[in-house]
Amino acid sequence: MFGLLDCNNFYVSCERVFQPRYEGRPVVVLSNNDGNLISRSAEAKALGLKMGDPYFQVKEVLQQHNVAVFSSNYALYGDMSRRVMYHLGQVAPAVEIYSIDEAFLDLAGMETYLGSLDDYAHKVRVGVKERTGIPTCVGVAPTKTLAKLANRIAKKDATLGGALYLNSAERRAWALRQVAVGDVWGVGRQYAAKLAAAGVDSAADLARVSDAWARKHLGGVVGARLVQELRGLPCAGLHASEDGSLSRKSISCSRTFGRPLSGYSDVLGAVAAFLSRAAEKLRAQGDTAHVLTVYISKNRFATNVAPPFSRSATLTLPAGPTADTTVLLGYARAMLNRLWEPGTAYHKAGVVLDGLEPPGTGQQLDLFAAMPAPLVLPEKPALLTQRPGLMASLDALNQRYGRGTVRVATAVPAPSISPTASNGTRPPWEGRAQWRSPAFTTRLEDLLLVN
Q1: Please, what's the b/e burial string for 397-419 (b: 16 or more CB within 10 A of its CB; e: otherwise)?
Q2: pLDDT digits (tens, 9 = 90+) for 189-229
Q3: 94-99 sheet: strands from edge to edge
Q4: Quick one: three-class SS letters along 8-30?
């Protein structure tokens, strides 16, 4: 038996915990750089605001209906998520943290001791609410797919009290009839259209197809397992979590700039900052990277910009895999030189680390391998020297005193390293965050004071 707990409108709920005056008022949270709507309260959804709506397109609607607007505050959301997941770890035998606001619970055998898990599901909701202030919904069912489906129904149907337990064949059959096939976990937009054309409109219709038909029309064995899960036959257990225990196959970091950048040093600083963060994540999971990709993009929506809007370069590291920020940055600088177009205003940049594996397992290098022209590697051999001790110290300092306390000089905005510059200079590549709330739980300066 599995449970799926999902936080309701999570980012909005985090804002309301510390600012309860927004309860009952429409609220939206924007993405990085204040670009798009990524979280909406129930009141905002009722106004017709859609997930992903560009802010500039719905600005008048937001103002007309007095919608509260917040910039994303990931420090706050991440810490609130940690608190929710910690409580789940205290009340469930095993937890799979599926995303920042979702977790699967392994409830196998708990029916023997608790009987019906309906009361248990409601108690979990109450416990999370009491300890964090975050409202949630819970679905409980024999498979993860059905638990996800039950959670969706519990969130849509207010009469259920936020929890649904599919403990019988009759209740499962009823639940399957309530959900359109396109809303089933694992069915994407293209498959939904294909299934609808074949007369499969609901989750109940999908559960009735044969395994052979599912293999042929729904992605092979993956589709067959999906159908079996809808029938109540578990095909997957809990997996490694998205809380850092999951070893990623690739790591990326990219951002849209707060304003267009045409200076080489500014774009290089952005690439260095993003690469530093990606390398930090790489070291945190104990891996090294074989392949580095760097890309820079122009604004595709600008009327005076011609395609291609994005240029990228990918390099298999000739000196072997590494997790050293300074080594990776030496390659990234050379790759940016290859991509750079003088006089161009850039809108976004990013880096991707691929070919991840633990240190010491690298492949045999080819002595005669040639570098792809016109890429020119760093001239100073010192930049290619691996320094695991230095990186460990860097990570330890940033973990103790806060992310970004110690950085490579390239990632520091030029004015802030000048003796005459004022402290706290914002990097020119930093995204807009006009309406960001304080980090109430992670910065002493932002600690909430009650008079």
Answers
A1: ebeeeeeeeebbebbbbeeeeee
A2: 889 999 999 999 999 999 999 999 999 988 889 999 999 99
A3: 94-99, 102-106, 2-7, 136-141, 163-165
A4: CCHHHHHHHHHCHHHCCCCEEEE
For residue 339, being part of any structural domain is answered with: yes
Longest dimension (CA), the chain: 73
Exposure of 4 by Cβ count < 10 A (0-12 exposed, 13-18 middle, 19+ buried)? buried
One DSSP character per residue, 357-385 reads E-TT-PPPP-TTPPPPTT----S-GGGG-
Give the burial class of 306: count Cβ atoms within 10 A of its Cβ; 0-12 exposed, 13-18 middle, 19 or more buried: exposed
Alpha-carbon span 89 to 87, nearest angstrom: 5
Cα 433-326-75 angle, rounded to 5 deg = 25
Instruction: Give pLDDT tens digits for 110-167.
Output: 888 887 899 999 999 999 999 999 999 999 999 999 999 999 999 999 999 999 999 9
The count of domains in the chain is: 1
Instruction: Give the CA count within 13 Å in the CB-facing half-sphere of 214.
Output: 19
Nearest-angstrom CA–CA distance, 385 and 369: 20
CA 54 and chain centroid, separation: 19
Local structure of 290: helix, strand or coil: strand
| DSSP string across 144-190 | HHHHHHHHHHHHH-GGGTTEEE--SHHHHHHHHHHSBGGGSTT--HH
Range of the domain at 307: 251-412
User: What is the share, in percent, of the chain residues with pLDDT greater than 70?
Assistant: 90
Q: What is the DSSP letter of 322?
A: B
How far is it, in rounded angstroms, from Cα 253 to Cα 278? 6
Q: Which residues contact 435 (CB under 8 A, 6 or more apart)?
A: 30, 34, 69, 70, 71
Domain presence at residue 338: yes
Report the CATH number at residue 274.
3.30.1490.100
pLDDT in tens, 60-101: 999 999 999 999 999 999 999 999 999 999 999 999 999 999
Q: How far apart are CA 141 and CA 242, in angstroms?
A: 22
Amino acid code (one letter) for 184: V
